[in-house]
Prior knowledge:
Layout: H1 7-23, E1 28-31, H2 34-41, E2 53-57, E3 62-67, H3 71-77, E4 83-87, H4 96-106, E5 113-116, H5 133-136, E6 141-144, H6 146-154, H7 158-181, H8 188-207, E7 220-223, E8 249-256, E9 265-271, H9 276-295, H10 302-315, E10 328-329, E11 336-339, E12 353-356, E13 359-362, E14 366-369, E15 372-376, E16 381-383, E17 395-396
Parallel strand pairs: 1-5, 3-4, 5-6, 9-17
Antiparallel strand pairs: 1-2, 2-3, 7-8, 8-9, 10-11, 12-15, 13-14, 15-16
Keywords: Membrane, Transmembrane, Transmembrane helix
Amino acid sequence: MVYAVPTREFERRLNLLYRVMDEKRLDAVYIVNPINIAYFIGFYYLQTERPVAIVVRRNGDIYFLGPLLERDHVLSQTKLVSRVYTYRDYPGEVHPIRLFADWLRELHLDSSAIGYDASPGYVSYWGYKGPSLTDLLPNAKFVNISDDIYSMRLIKSDVEIELLRESAKWSNLAHSLLQDYTAPGMYDYEISLRASLDASIMMKKALGPGYKPLRSEYPAYAGFRGQVGEHGAYPHSISVERPIKVGDVLVTGATADVGGYMAELERNLFVGKPSNDVVKYHETALKLQDAALNALRPGVKASDVDRAVIRVAKELGVAEYLLHHSGHGLGLESHEAPFLDVGDETVLRPGMVVTVEPGIYVSGLGGFRHSDTVVIHEDYVEVITYYPRDTESLTIEI
């Protein structure tokens, strides 16, 4: 079983990139998006204000440009980098992007055609202040290839799908523990921490010393994200100020990091016997998810899946409770294209992986949502998360 992305997979991805370089007559590609860096060379790092980039040359050489504190880190994570260029820190006596320009001159790329994914400079959550490589290297031709790279990432390889299947298995365990540990009088974070810790310990022991999480500090996670009782009516509640009590509807989520890939599993839990209204909305949410699953197949537009859900929601009289679209792609990011949304005309193709998660949110009562991770194949769709959905299985006896 593969628990990490093998070298042959990175070679496959780089070959796709070289093909784009050939088609667009590029000498090199300059990549700053940290997810794209992880995609092509398997390097994960904590993104800060400090500029980081990789340069992929058509001859196969790959250069890392970044802060000194990442030098040993990048060399320990990947064997694909040919050479490392570092600066002490940001902003420094000389701005890092000016050093990047100097290094590109040293590599004789200052008069070349260079593709870029996000910016011919740097992007970060903290914003970017500084010059652009387009100004510093006026004789170079910069070409935006972000759409080309994203198109590569849309279709998952067999390796990526296998990693997501493994993630789904451990997500299932983490969620099972979450349900076992949930009880009235406890705060959501108490239950989440215990379930996540125990699932992570079991996962690490099972997968062995060669396994490590790449996108988080711990292997597995399960929690509520604040969607407890009436707070469940906020799809992204974040936190709640009170303990769980009898009668609460809980919206839960679980995932696990396998090679940087994390499947998505979400369910409702019911603390004590659910009321008739709760059962009604729960069963309605299942019908909406089934509508999406039934519409999901190769050749269908992503927008048509969302329209199928909206149509059923109108028939069932709950359209006013729909607060978001019916799902989204995932892979190295928890939210990727395509989006199961009326505005996304992407035609679904084999190899795409999406969540299916239409939800309804009733003020004062709670949220009703299940999310499953689905792989689109040539002639069928595969639901790789498999936790029960029926009311009885999801009820916590008091």
